[in-house]
Design goal:
9 strands; alpha/beta; 9-stranded mixed beta sheet; single chain; Rossmann fold
């Protein structure tokens, strides 16, 4: 994710928190999927690109050992103040400041939607690096028939066919487990996707 993207989020952090920074904004299908997945992770979990921290805080309350990282300092400040029982750090998904094999699971919930096809392999490689062998990944994204940019709130985002994103995951050592898709309700009926994978090998 580029510096410009981080700056754009910083400028609109308060607006983002108001609109999307709580569990009340989460789709019921997403809530069920992420909750079930996270509670099956046997060990510490990283909420990569945690934004305002609502997923991290929610999972902490459910007994999950989770910490959050995001490059937007305003988000981390809000998260620390709102969810004091959860660990949060400012950091880049392209270069996570933690040792290899630190986590049993990584949640990347729409945190890679700004990465284009030329850059998305870097954060996925980092997620593979910080996962333990067999570690779990849950990735949320926008789906489409082809990889393409589209205008989204804050800055441009990308749609991915699930099989294309699964191919990138495979190239950095992940093995696909499940793919889920749904379409959001109007007024913005965007197709959404989720991929569950595990780390088969470090590359």
């Amino acid at each position: 994710m580029s510096i410009d993207v981080g700056g754009a989020y910083s400028l609109r952090a308060a607006e983002y928190v108001d609109l999307l920074g709580s569990m009340s904004s989460v789709h019921p299908s997403d809530l069920q999927l992420v909750t079930t997945w996270a509670e099956q992770v046997e060990g510490p979990l990283l909420d990569a690109g945690c934004g305002p921290g609502h997923w991290s805080g929610y999972l902490t309350d459910r007994g999950v050992d989770v910490s959050g990282v995001d490059q937007v300092a305003e988000f981390i400040g809000h998260a620390r103040a709102t969810y004091p029982s959860t660990r949060f750090e400012v950091g880049s998904l392209d270069a996570l400041a933690v040792p290899a094999s630190s986590y049993a699971g990584v949640l990347a919930w729409y945190s890679l939607i700004r990465h284009d096809p030329d850059s998305i392999q870097q954060p996925l490689s980092e997620m593979a690096r910080v996962l333990q062998q067999g570690g779990k990944l849950l990735l949320g994204f926008f789906t489409g028939a082809v990889v393409e940019p589209f205008e989204h709130s804050v800055v441009t985002a990308y749609r991915w066919p699930p099989e294309a994103l699964a191919g990138v995951l495979g190239s950095v050592g992940f093995e696909l487990e499940e793919t889920h898709t749904r379409t959001a309700a109007r007024p913005k009926p965007r197709p959404h996707g989720a991929i569950l994978a595990h780390l088969a090998s470090h590359r």
